[in-house]
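[#protein-structures] MJ: dropping Outer envelope membrane protein 7 here for a structure pass
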Amino acid sequence: MGAVTAAIIAVAGLGVAWITIEMACKPCLEKGREAIDRSLNPDYDPDDHDNIRAPLNPTVDSSSDQPSQSV
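AK: finished. structure tokens for Outer envelope membrane protein 7:
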């Protein structure tokens, strides 16, 4: 009975350790998983400049607007 108890405690400890690592390293793990998903996607083209995280309607800074000059 002691071996079964020790095995259950060991499995529970491994589960808690796995969850802790997943929570602590979440940003790094997400970036790595996204990179793996992109590399395994046959439709992904790294030459495309579309940024899926870019806002659809970016705000325009009025100080950077240059008036167009007609010739």
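MJ: nice. The two ends are 92 Å apart (CA to CA).
AK: one more thing. Residues 65 and 71 are 19 Å apart (CA to CA).
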